[in-house]
Amino acid sequence: MRLARFLPLLALLTLTPARAESTPASVVNAFQNLLLDNMHQGAAQSCDTRQQRLLPSVENTFDLPYLAQHILRPHWAELNDAQKSQFTETLQDMVVATYASQFARSGGETFTTLDTDDMAGNLRVVHARLEPKSGDPVRFDYVMHETPKGWRVINVIAAGVSDLALRSAQYNRVIKDKGFDGLIGQIREKTAQTKTSCS
Amino acid sequence: MTSHTPPIVTRALTAWTRTVQRHAMAVILAFAALTALAGGYAAKHLEIDADPASLLSRDLPWRRAEIAVAKAFPDQEKTIVAVIDQATPEQADAALAALSRTLSADPAFSKVYSMGSGEFFERNALLYLDPPQLDDLITGLETAQPFLGRLTDDPSLAGLFGLLSQAMSQTAVDLPFDLARITAPIAQTLDAAAQGRSQPLSWQSLMMPTDLSGGMRFLTIKPRDPSADRAAVQRVRDTIARLQLDPAHGVRVRLTGEIPMWLDEMGSAFDGAIVSALASLLLVAGFLYAGLRSLRMVASCLIALLAGLVLTAGFAVVGVGRLNLISVAFATLYIGIAIDYGVQFGMRYRELAAGGQSSHDALTRTGGEFGEALLLCALTTLVGFYAFIPTSYRGVAELGVIAGTGILIGLFTSLTLLPALIERWPPRPESTKARPLPAFVTWIGDLPVRRPRQVRIATAVLALAGLAALPWVRFDYNPMHLKPPHTESLAVYDDLMAGSESPLSATVLAKSPEEVAAIAQKLRGVPEVRRVLSLQSFVPQDQDDKLAALATLNLSLGLGIPENLALKPVDAARDLAALRDFASAAQAYRGKPEDQAAAAQLAARVDAFVAPLAKADAATQAHQLTLLRDALLGGMPKLMQRLHRALNAQPVTLADLPADLKAQWLSVDGQYKIDVAPRDNLNDDAHLIRFAEAVQAAVPQATGAPIAYVAGARTVMGAFTQAFVSAFVLIVILLLVLLRSVKDTLRTLVPLVLGSLLLAGISVLIDLRLNFANVIALPLLLGIGVDIGVVILWRARHAAAGERNPVMTSTGAAVAVSALTTLTSFASLMLSAHRGMASMGLLLTLGLLLYLACTFIVLPSLLPARGANSAS
Question: Considering only CA atoms, which of B210, B229, B186 is closest in space to residue B78?
Fold first, then answer.
């Protein structure tokens, strides 16, 4: 039988260990679960510990170099390589510190990952919802693109506010007024403040 | 002074007059028949050619270039342009779309297009911005994102006022625009809604303070039937009215362009011509009676005048075939000049009849002797008119043919029909005692004879003064200054000239994209050039960078720019609650004092809107709230759609440009059009000349309106100079031949030269400029002015014994009366709404007055002292 000849092939296919085929939703899920876990740990963890746990997750969830390039698009070409990596690192620090500070204690919230939509340019949008114990749920939309390492977030839209737009408008204004170094300084200052008030 | 007149002319004229007198009735009947024939023929076949382009010869090199462009791009010639402004961007775009759609579907119009508007430009608008402009816009939109994002999330009154409440109570929430900028428009909309009216809020003006289209939209319309211009314009106006595109609905649409301008001009030219012809006829009749004192003679003169006019019109059909914008003035000119012959003839006849001769003999003598003076007058005037025929200024050349030949006809009529009429119906013998003139008139009149030397010196001095003024005489290069001033078409045109979208620009044709690039390169280096446009200009520059920027923007604006946003239905409870909350928040707002005041005012308006609804029934609530919602948020979906499309722009290549656009810049036979816009306002002649010369220096084959105006003006000036000089020379020759005396010729010419120089001086003083229309006045004035001198001189030669001053005689009186009749005709031209004709009237009136004064005062001072010499 012809089919018999194909059986070994089929077996090969099924026996191949299923790679953790990351879908956009799964990436978001993993990240949100970490946030929830941090919140449930609550006071048992220090802010530093939370940041240490978040760092690899943030690296694997967000495409920070891409974000960096797009946030500073008008001025990106004027920066040298050293400045570019400096900005990306500073940004990363800031993101990590913010998540560590914002998602520190649990109040009974739940994250629900909803559906995934397609977007132009081969992007995906993962819709999610943060439901507090009482009050209106907040909508989160994660815009993601595929990289060789898997799906990564390139914009977070919280309750309709686009993070990329906010940062872009703000940072480009600062660069115009205070220059690149001024921007780095300002972001670092803000990060330090966040860390200080982070419990 | 002996008469050098060859007796043959006198004898011939005398014989002719006798013949006419013998067969008076037959002559009258013959003229009646001829006039009726000519009149009927003219009425049926005379055409009016109102095309200003045909006023100048087609063979001039710059005209040929113009014609080449018109042939390559026929859809851009003879169009109506609708200009939409005084509206918010949304309303202007909507008006443009509606008008464009309706007219495109109308079979009366072959082409309807707009530049810079339409689906293609909406989609790619952002690609056409300068990189800095685009960056500004991007920053603006990113800043606006939180606001837009949340508003599109909840596109309802509750959503909007919720956001605004937050803005009022939390200074941390950034609005993408100053609070002050939004409170006033919202307040107005609320007010209107409270009264049941809809006053839409313009989001585009708030989000993008500079309207990318400069506040104006243009729609070019080409009628299908080139002979139905008036109907086409009316149809467009009717469509505009039907679509309710008027200030009451928030938009202003005005018409300009070749067709409306030319209709307005034609209308005013013809109104002017008819009014002035009638006015001059009335005034002429009045003066005739004052001079001739006999109703019968007045009637005879008028009949002869009108007969001659009709015959001239008949000639116009046969000889030229049509009247143009300039030659319509022939009627007035004819009346003013031809009546002279009648008046002078009549007054000479009366003088002789009063002197004791029988009516019959007086008539014969008048025809014979005075006839030769009239012949000379007619010939010199003729020369003035005919001098324009060989020039390239066809408009005036045609007037020259018609009016010049009319003068001959007028002379013929005066020497044929008029004597016949007088013979048949002689005036009743009445007292012809002349009333004494006022003392000061006699004093002035006798001055040249009492003090000839002083008058001669004064002449020399004034002549020098006039000479000094000559270089300052100006020509007005812009034919637009001749157009009727209070018409819509010209008002819009002037607005555009003063703005950044000058309707006057130079055009160059090129055969290949490489040639286009080379020419554009050369022109961009010319400082008087503001912008060079060609088909290639419509392919945006730096697309890669811009598209990258737009991709980023698209990403950062996220999902907040939906292509099809639907406003949420009105929820009375929710919306009213949000309104009330907002009112309280606005009252409690603490910020800058002016913002606080604005916020308080807005709160008051909100209260005023909400109050009556609290007690109203559900239907009224729903109705009012929907009205308010649509007024405040109605513009959002369209704005979102435009942004969405603009953010998803694709690269644009030449091939992607819409066919409509390509047709405007690339002709069917493969020629590329290059449009060269000026930096300065070309309504100023100095700028106009500089621009035209600069462009032509860089690109000799350039053409277009500015170049045409300057070249046209130079052609006309050349024509005028040629005509003036040739008229002068011919007149001198004529005078020499017929007067047979160099001294007498000089005596006739000196007042003429003085008068001309004084005219130059006065026009400089009152800033009266030469232009395309009035330039014919000058050679004409020469012809008429010399008449006065000729007649006075003739009188001096035929002076009665003891007569010292030929001016203070009945001939002088006759000349004065006839000059007055001519003056009133010319002055009536000034009533014309057509500025060209009016300036021609002014120049002719001034000139004639000057010539009259100069001849009357200077000529007698040049005569030899009266001795025992007497006329033969």
Answer: B229
Q: How far apart are the first and last CA of chain A?
A: 69
**In chain B, residues 422-441 whose CB comes closer than 8 Å to chain A:** none
Q: Please give, rounded to a whole number of angstroms, the shortest distance from the CA of B146 to a CA of chain A.
A: 5
Q: How far is CA B497 from CA B79, B262, B434, B580, in A?
A: 18, 18, 60, 50
- Residue ranges per structural domain of chain B: 7-54+263-479+710-862, 80-122+212-256, 130-211+541-651, 486-540+655-706
DSSP strand pairing (B47-49 vs B322-324): parallel
Residues 6+ apart with CB under 8 A from A78: none
| CA pair distance B460, B758, nearest whole angstrom | 11
* Contact between A141 and B559 using a beta-carbon 8 Å cutoff: yes
B92, two tokens: 């202007």
| Residue from the list A70, A159, A161 with its beta carbon closest to the beta carbon of B555 | A70
Chains A–B, number of C-beta pairs less than 8 Å apart: 71
What pTM value is reported for the model? Answer: 0.72
The residue in chain A having the minimum alpha-carbon distance to the alpha carbon of residue B154 is A160
Contact of A191 with A94, CB cutoff 8 Å = yes
Q: Compare CB distances from B556 to A119, A125, A168 and report the shortest one's residue.
A: A168
Instruction: Give residue B244's identity as a one-letter amino acid code.
Output: Q
Contact residues on chain A for B135, CB-CB shorter than 8 A = 74
Backbone angles phi and psi of B312, in degrees to 5: -65, -40
C-alpha–C-alpha distance, residues B825 and B335, integer Å: 7
> How many C-beta neighbours within 10 Å does residue A3 have?
7
**Least CB-CB distance to A155: which of B548, B556, B648?**
B556
Q: How far apart are alpha carbons B661 and A171 in whole angstroms?
A: 40
Are A47 and A191 in contact by the 8 Å Cβ rule? The answer is no
Shortest distance, CA A99 to any CA of chain B (angstroms)? 20
Which CATH superfamily includes the segment(s) B486-540+655-706?
Answer: Ribosomal protein S6/Translation elongation factor EF1B (3.30.70.60)
The CATH code that applies to domain B80-122+212-256 is 3.30.70
- CB–CB of B556 and A165 under 8 A? yes
Whether A142 and B133 have beta carbons less than 8 Å apart is answered as: no
- Which residue in this structure is represented by tokens 């009186």? B813
Domains (range + CATH), chain A: 21-197 (3.10.450.710)
CATH class held by domain B7-54+263-479+710-862: mainly alpha
pLDDT in the model for residue B437: 65
Question: CA of A159 to nearest chain B CA: how many angstroms apart?
Answer: 7
B 105-164 → A contacts, CB under 8 A: 135, 138-139, 141-143, 145-146, 149-150, 152-153
User: Which residues on A lie below 8 Å from B555 (Cβ)?
Assistant: 70, 143, 154-155, 164
Question: Per residue of chain A (199 residues), what is the pLDDT tens digit?
Answer: 445 555 555 544 444 444 456 888 899 999 998 888 888 887 888 888 888 999 999 999 999 999 999 999 888 888 999 999 999 999 999 999 999 888 888 888 888 888 888 887 788 899 999 888 888 888 889 999 999 989 999 999 887 788 888 888 889 888 988 999 999 999 999 999 988 888 7
ipTM of the complex: 0.80
d(CA B324, CA B569): 64
- Residue in chain A nearest B131 by alpha carbon: A74
CA nearest to B555 within chain A: A155
Domains B80-122+212-256 and B486-540+655-706 are alike in CATH topology: yes
| Chain B residues with CB-CB distance to A121 below 8 A | 551, 554
Question: Rg for chain B (alpha carbons), in Å?
Answer: 37
**β-pair partners for B180:** none
Q: Measure B554 CA to nearest chain A CA, in Å.
A: 10
CB distance B558–A74 less than 8 Å?
Answer: no
Please check whether residue B557 touches A, CB under 8 A: yes
